[in-house]
From TrEMBL, chain A:
Keyword Iron-sulfur: no
Gene3D superfamilies, alphabetized: 3.40.50.12110, 3.80.30.30
Entry-linked InterPro entries: SPL
Domain of life: Bacteria
UniProt keyword annotations, A-Z: Lyase
Protein name per Swiss-Prot or TrEMBL: Spore photoproduct lyase
Pfam families the record matches: SPL (PF20903)
GO molecular-function terms, A-Z: 4 iron, 4 sulfur cluster binding; DNA photolyase activity; S-adenosyl-L-methionine binding
UniProtKB/TrEMBL annotation, chain B:
Single GO BP term: nucleoside metabolic process
MF (Gene Ontology): 4 iron, 4 sulfur cluster binding; DNA photolyase activity; S-adenosyl-L-methionine binding
Residue spans crossing the bilayer: none
SUPFAM superfamilies according to UniProt: Purine and uridine phosphorylases (SSF53167)
Protein name: Nucleoside phosphorylase domain-containing protein
Superkingdom as given in the UniProt entry: Bacteria
PANTHER family linked to this entry: SPORE PHOTOPRODUCT LYASE, SPORE PHOTOPRODUCT LYASE-RELATED
GO CC field: endospore-forming forespore
Gene3D superfamilies: Nucleoside phosphorylase domain (3.40.50.1580)
């Protein structure tokens, strides 16, 4: 339950604000001028807030759609990302959001139309234009609160050159299942092996539940995808990932899988330091990591070994042209 | 340590009785009361007094960071009945227009409400919010010492448009208003203390660092590295004892840090 909703005065009468508030009748509503006065305040603690986050409803001004980082590409011509929401229902200990933001509150920009207008302006006809959501949040976990996907599907239904990636660790696929499948909307599920899920992906549904959600989407004609990004080091790394791949591919038909990406655990030094300060007892931030220049990651040789091994292993289940390893140069 | 900042003696009394706090007679700037886990200061009325008292108490309890701070007392409200208690989710300084946001991350026994801090008493009750004369400066000051989740403002309504401020409550009336809330305030502040505990460094780091600092000279940045490496070692071996952390021998602080670094690299490899 969300106990408190901060609402920017400029969106207080926005219909989306009204409907979100109507769904949280017991929450205290606090009017605010600008979300930054809460979200960016320096004297607050992400770890403590994560235990009971509030919701912030705000208006985003500009910079709706941005060029996506290189690592995001899955074979399209143009790659963009957008963040109608910041922060996440889940609490993965390796999540870079906890290093990036001072606040753990869920920040939702209610002017979805501005995002969709900007997406519209970026589409190059005849090309594959990808729009990645889920860079600063899980794309589906808070769908019951935001209703973003329900809003976006009719938009993408009429723009075949615009491809939407919803990246998630959730099982919130109801909105999609209630809609006819769209060939340009891909729901990408992120996984780590069982032991890592248990140790680090707090509140994330079990691997099996996520596979079931994925399977249901595929059975209903929706394209799905796999994201093994980041790969997390662990004892018995190869066996753990082999078992995970087996568990997924034995249940989800390869023909419905658009792509699989594989990426390393990497974070700017400053993010790593912030995360380590928040959770000093967490071995993940120490175990096997090394610092090179301004980044913290597994040592380059080990990183390459992990990614190459995972790529080879995935090729047992997926054609090579569907696999996108992200090997940092 | 849980710190209470109150404006008046009468607001302090129920807390002093409940937590069995002892008056610190040598303290002349403000009345101060201490217990094992609690500290209380009586600031007097107004923003300057409250900021000064908050800062004074911070010093008195050892300049510790990430401790619990609570401003407890009476407040006006246009419509809430006298005796109602509210936790404040927004504190607005009426004069400067500065707005502060105590972060509410634990379940509270009371609903939450906005509060205006005024410079002068006001019986017009024009704003639909709690009214007091201290909370904004209390929060601004305490939030320098503790994260916004640990700094809270709890107010009990003492006057409203129907029973306005000019019928100033007597000392006894204030005590009777606040005393029924103290039990819940105790549970609330204990929960805050549990949050604060999550932010305290592991005791073993301080113990082992003190041991090594007796043996070697460390520069400031070396001391920081020492503590950081000890913390990393504990992260990799949660059950490690202080004795084990102190097991390294070295010729210098530099060599010790290298040994610790090596130990962590070895321990951090997956097995
Ligand atoms: S699901 Fe993704 S966005 Fe959410 S906490 Fe985990 S890594 Fe972060």
């Amino acid at each position: 339950m969300i106990p408190l909703v901060y609402v920017e005065e400029s969106v207080r009468n926005h219909p989306r604000t009204e409907s979100i508030l109507a769904r949280h009748p017991r929450a205290s509503v606090v009017p605010i001028e600008r979300y930054g006065s809460i979200f960016n305040h320096s004297q607050q603690n992400f770890r403590l807030q994560k235990q009971r986050p509030a919701l912030i409803l705000a208006n985003k001004h500009g910079h709706f759609v941005q060029p996506a980082p290189d690592a995001y590409g899955v074979g399209g011509n143009h790659n963009w990302y957008f963040s109608h929401m910041l922060n996440c229902l889940y609490d993965c200990r390796y999540c870079f959001l906890q290093g990036m933001y001072r606040s753990a509150h869920y920040l939702v920009f209610v002017n979805f139309e501005s995002f969709l207008d900007d997406i519209d302006s970026k589409i190059e006809t005849g090309k594959q234009n990808w729009f990645f959501s889920g860079y600063d949040a899980d794309s589906l976990a808070l769908e019951p609160v935001t209703g973003f996907v329900a809003n976006a599907l009719p938009f993408f239904a009429t723009r075949p050159d615009a491809w939407l990636e919803l990246r998630t660790k959730s099982t919130q696929v109801r909105q999609l299942l209630e809609h006819d499948p769209l060939s340009n909307v891909v729901t990408a599920f992120s996984y780590t092996p069982e032991a890592t899920w248990k140790a680090t992906e707090h509140k994330v549904p079990s691997i099996e539940k996520r596979i079931q959600a994925m399977k249901k989407l595929a059975e209903n004609g929706w394209i799905v995808a796999l994201r093994f990004d980041p790969l997390i080091e662990q004892a018995g790394f190869n066996d753990a990932y082999s078992a995970l791949f087996e568990q997924i591919f034995s249940q989800v038909p390869e023909s419905m899988i658009h792509s699989a990406t594989i990426g390393p655990l990497r974070m700017p030094k400053q993010f790593h330091r912030t995360m380590e300060n928040l959770y000093p007892e967490e071995s993940l931030f120490v175990s096997g990591l090394a610092q090179t220049n301004s980044m913290v990651s597994y040592p380059a040789e080990r990183e390459r070994e992990m990614i190459e091994w995972a790529t080879d292993e995935l090729e047992k289940h997926l054609p090579g042209n569907k696999i996108f390893p992200n090997l940092p140069s | 340590m849980i710190h209470f900042v109150v404006a008046f003696d009468a607001e302090a009394r129920p807390l002093i009785d409940h937590f069995k706090l002892k008056r610190q007679h040598h303290e002349r700037s403000f009345p101060v009361y201490l217990g094992e886990q609690h500290a209380l200061i009586v600031s007097g009325a107004g923003k300057i007094a409250s900021a000064a008292a908050t800062a004074h108490l911070h010093g008195l309890t050892g300049f510790q960071h990430q401790q619990v701070w609570i401003n407890f007392g009476i407040a006006g409200h246009p419509s809430l009945p006298v005796g109602e208690t509210r936790l404040c989710h927004q504190v607005i300084d009426k004069l400067s227009k500065q707005v502060f946001y105590p972060q509410l991350v634990i379940k509270s026994p009371w609903p939450s409400e906005s509060l205006f801090t005024l410079d002068e008493p006001d019986d017009s009750y024009a704003d639909d919010a709690l009214l007091d004369m201290e909370a904004s400066s209390f929060f601004a000051t305490a939030n320098r010492y503790a994260t916004a989740e640990l700094v809270q403002v709890v107010k009990v309504v003492s006057d409203n448009a129907e029973a306005p401020i000019n019928d100033i409550p007597t000392k006894q009336q204030i005590i009777e208003l606040l005393a029924p809330q103290v039990e819940q305030l105790k549970h609330f502040s204990d929960s805050l203390q549990q949050l604060a505990n999550q932010l305290q460094p592991d005791r073993r780091i301080g113990e082992a660092a003190a041991y090594y600092q007796q043996k070697f000279h460390f520069s400031f940045s070396q001391s920081e590295s020492l503590r950081h490496l000890l913390q990393q070692w504990i992260a990799l071996d949660a059950a490690i004892s202080t004795d084990e952390l102190c097991r390294f021998d070295a010729k210098s602080s530099r060599q010790l840090l290298e040994k610790l670094q090596q130990q962590i690299s070895d321990a951090g490899q997956p097995t």
